[in-house]
Structures are given as C-alpha cells and as structure tokens.
C-alpha cells in the first residue's frame, strides 16, 4: 500500500465509504486493477491498521486534537468532562464559522438529541438554525452519555459561554430534562435576555392518533377542525381558545387528560401565543433538526469510534458550508426572474438572496391578485391605515398601517419570519411605494457578507502557510507508515492516557431504530405492516396448511379401517 493508496482509504472513510468501494475508485483512478498494485485484502488491512493505530486512545487523541485546534484558532471553543474513572462523558465544541453564524442567525435555535453516531451510543445533539439561504446551519454540537438535567444544563451553559448570549427562542421536543435545563440556564443574568422555550408542534400533532385513537382522528373530521386552529398563525389567542373549546365540547373530550395537559401548555406550542417573537423558519417544528439528522446519517455509522466520528463530522460540515458558498455565489452573480411590473420586486431581487426573494415574490404577487381593500383612511403625519381582506383567508380582516418607509400588519408575519406579508405589500402599493423600505430588510436575509471574521482571510492564511511549508521542505523525504498515520490521525499520546473512551450508554432517544426504545404503538404498527400468512386450505390466519385441522379431518375420512381377517391372521 503506497502513500497514495493509504490516502484513498483514509479519505474515503471520511465520507463513509468502505474498503471495497475505495478499491473500485482506485481502479478507475489508476486505469485498472493491475495498475493499483494492491488487493481488497490490502485495502481492508489498511483500514484495520488505521483503527489499531488509534486503539483505545482516541478519547485522549480527540481532546489533544481540540487543544491544537484552539491553539491554532483562538475562536475554536471546546469543553469536556470525565467521570470518576476517567471515562469521557460530555463533549461540546463550536468552531469559528459556527460562532460567526450564530451572531447573524442565532435568534432562533433548534436543539434535538435523538441521534447517536458512535459505538458507545453517546447522543449527538447539534444546535441548528436557518441561514440567509433558508438552509440548515450548525452553530455547535455536543456528545452526551446521558439525557439528564445535569448534562443538558452543562451543555447549554457552555453554549452561552461560547456564543456570548442566549438565543431569543429555542425549539425542542417535549423532553422534561431539556425543559428544566433551559429554564435554569437560558436566564436573564449579566445583561443577557432570557430565552423563550417553544415545543415542536409536529411531535405533538403526531401523538394525536396514539392518545385519542385512530377512529376519532382518521374516521371523523376532528383533526381537520383541530388543525384549523392549531396550525393557523393568523388567528388571535381568544379565537384559538374559543375554537379549541368548541371542538372539545362537540366531540365530548372534556375528560381527556392528555388534551387537558396539552391545553395547559398551549403557550409553548400554539402559534398565536408567540406571534411577537422571531422564529425565522423554526416556528412550527423541529423539522430542521430532523433534516440535520438525516443529513448526518449519510456520513456516520452506528459503530463509529470518536476519531471516525470527528473526521466524518468535519466532512459533513465541509459539505454543508460548501453548499452555502455555492448558493451565495448563485445569488451574487445572477438575478432571478421578476413576474410583476412593480419596481419594488426588482429592488427585492437586488437585496435578498434567491431563496428568500422567491418567498417575497410570492407575497408580492398575492398582494396584486388576492387582496381586497375594505377601508382606507386619510394620510395623517405620513401614515395611512387600511383594512384588507385576503380572499384565501375566510372571515378575517387584516389591519395595515403603512408609510413611505415602513409597514405594520396585524398578521405579524414580518415579526415571526422576517418577511414582509402580502397585506403590507398591498398597502405599500396603494400609496405608491416603488423602493423596498430599508426598515423592512433584515440583515440575515440579505446578500451582503455576514459580520465577523471572513472565511476568505482564513483561506488566504492557510494558502500562505502551505506556500511557506513548500519553500522550507525542499526535497521530498519519504516517511514511514506510522508517520503517515500520525499525519492523518494525529500523534499518539505519550505516557499515561488520562482521558479514557466513553462507557457504553443507553439513552431513550436514538435515531436508529435498532437502538431506540420502541413504544407499543410503533410495535403494533410494524406488526400490522407485515404480510399476513393464511392457510391455503381454509384461509384462516391462526395456522398454515401443514397444521390445518380441516386437513387432518379429511385424512381421517379417507384412511382405511383395519378389519380382522377370516383366517385369524393380521392383514
């Protein structure tokens, strides 16, 4: 195995490609198996040697790698804890790009701890947000051995320490430990503003059939009526409470304990209760985290060591950030097609990224075709008040106040999502505004570069270091196989290892079903999807044709009865 072939095996492992496919790739690269000079066994042995080189030292090696990264870049933040026996139990990290992204996109954060990616079943939990391309962006991540209040509180405290402030809103599932940790950690201290905790609507809605029964949820119009009030962000709090009460009374569910509990915490998951808070794409679900889990699952395997996990995590981040760079370049070098003759749409195409522009374009077109102005006031001190009816929203009038440089609507979409609503556009069009009001343009959606350290400067520094290294090295000096592994994985720790590998954990939330604790409902659903075996004789499902009682009865009927012979001999 040459240096080039070992690099192929190592680089392939970063993106979850095994030795067999690595050999196939090398064959295409070298022009045939004969030119590769190594067999599948050699590739597998190389993969084995890489793992043996790390051995049981990868807990210490990973922390040593983090120390080097922090020395190289002061913006890299990490923290860890070990138990009384020296085994790693908690690990948190955030690099310079993640911390810079939080400065711009960290108002709303989704946190999900249902994904394990390593042989010790430690929970991998990323902090996820939405960037200016409306894509998932990872701010930080952690590995936890337990899903306890103590572990979550430790993680959240280091998250605040790394980022310098609390998120405005954090969205999670109904984990009781998270709820307590968020309440105790994201608090108003040292001039920080306390975070608002919101629950995932999707997870709660998914429990309705399980808690109330399939007959009520699927064979009646109960869910359709309930969704009218649960999913709508255009209704007021009193409208929701009146509608919820009417539905509960209609279907006689006043005594249902689960629904009573969900109603008691309605301010944490029903949109009308947080219409005055920025959510920026995280308003209703933790689907951003679910999307991130699927994204990470393409790179990770259940049996990954911490060393393999870290290498693949870096590859995952490279892919995520490269996609952001591609979309940024697309937005900066071309303009999307406009569909109206209103100059404000052309202005929006110049200001916003392509993904956000398409959302704004939808609102602009709706303002032209779906709005009916019911009342308009005289202009007073530059402000005009309107009452507008949206033809797609029944029995609702939206109150809009507009001026030449601002607009406010009672639907409060701009407050929640940072995007001007169709009702406000209708009012701006009515008073003849042709330029996009800059007070309605958020920095997080614009094409301009984010604040903080530029990635270009980091790239230039790396290129300069590589140039200096090439100039100093002179002629190439061949190094041993062990030296090569040290260059790829890091040097082995010298002396006694103080940070041991984690103990095998068992947590309630794992992404892979073979490790996750499965509820009785899921077991029943899985069983119902299996093909039902029927008896070929009678079509019963309690037995097969070999043990069919009808078959045995038929055999008895045709079986001859032995009779004694006249000669007295047995026949």
Automatic annotation (TrEMBL):
Matching entries from InterPro entries are given as:
MULE_transposase_dom (IPR018289), Znf_SWIM (IPR007527)
Recall the GO molecular function terms of this protein's record. Answer: zinc ion binding
The chain positions of domain SWIM-type read 398-432
- Residues annotated as region Disordered? 549-571
Task: Kindly indicate whether the keyword Metal-binding belongs to this entry.
Answer: yes
**Keywords of the record:** Metal-binding, Zinc, Zinc-finger
- Where are the membrane-spanning stretches? none
This protein's name: SWIM-type domain-containing protein
Organism, as annotated: Heracleum sosnowskyi
